[in-house]
């Protein structure tokens, strides 16, 4: 079992039950899934970027990515319906907890001049989106590949509809929020 999942079940659930005044452990907020996305607007001029992005994303997450395509044409962006514009991975279960553990404890401390994550990245429905400029912060990332690619977007989807409950959950899981 993943270390973070075990921590959640044994320590975080009782703490959140007491803190949120819940009587049933099934009502405690939990992380449902994590979506990791790389948007590649430059892929229309350099098709090799898609292969690099897929390789990089599979190294970082441990799961094969899905290629995303444009849903509609936008003339201002020189975009046609069906063009490849990025790739994404949706993590659930053990892989999700392992990825979050690596993100919070290995990758984020490697960010230069890191002062914490701002808590303004919640969407009002308990979900948290984080943009990372460099993929180099992940130990698995290959420098040659990651240096040519843009950053990644990490979205953490929780079961709660309240941002404060979601923040409390993520803090207890180890997300380093910025001190006010």
Describe the structure using short key phrases:
alpha+beta, 50s Ribosomal Protein L5, Chain: A, 180 residues, 5 helices
- Low-confidence parts, pLDDT < 50 over ≥5 residues? none
Main sheet: strand order = 2-3-1-5-4
N to C succession of SSEs = HEHEEHEHEH
Quantity of strands, as a count = 5
User: Can you tell me the CATH architecture?
Assistant: 2-Layer Sandwich
Question: How many distinct helices?
Answer: 5
Largest sheet: 5 strands, antiparallel
Task: Provide a short characterization of the protein structure.
With 180 residues, the chain is of the alpha+beta class.
What does this entry look like structurally?
By secondary structure, the chain is α+β, with helices and mostly antiparallel strands. It has one domain (29-173): 50s Ribosomal Protein L5, Chain: A, CATH 3.30.1440. The chain is built from five helices and five strands. The chain has helices at residues 3-19, 48-61, 93-107, 143-146, 163-173, and strands at 31-39, 66-69, 84-91, 128-132, 152-158. It has a five-stranded antiparallel beta sheet with strand order 2-3-1-5-4. It is globular and about 55 Å long. It starts with a helix and ends in a 7-residue tail after the last helix. The model has no long low-confidence stretch (mean pLDDT 84).
């Amino acid at each position: 079992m993943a270390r973070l999942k075990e921590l959640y079940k044994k320590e975080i659930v009782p703490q959140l039950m007491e803190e949120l005044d819940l009587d049933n452990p099934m009502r405690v907020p939990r992380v449902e899934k994590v979506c990791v996305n790389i948007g590649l607007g430059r892929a229309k001029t350099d098709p090799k970027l898609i292969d690099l992005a897929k390789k990089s994303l599979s190294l970082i997450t441990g799961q094969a990515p899905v290629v995303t395509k444009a849903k509609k044409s936008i003339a201002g962006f020189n975009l046609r319906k069906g063009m490849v514009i990025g790739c994404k991975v949706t993590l659930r279960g053990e892989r999700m907890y392992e990825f979050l553990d690596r993100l919070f404890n290995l990758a984020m401390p490697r960010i230069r001049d890191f002062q914490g994550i701002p808590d303004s990245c919640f969407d009002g429905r308990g979900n948290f989106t984080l943009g990372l400029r460099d993929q180099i912060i992940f130990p698995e990332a290959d420098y040659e590949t990651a240096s040519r690619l843009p950053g990644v977007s990490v979205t953490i989807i929780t079961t709660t509809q309240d941002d404060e409950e979601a923040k409390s959950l993520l803090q207890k899981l180890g997300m380093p929020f910025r001190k006010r």
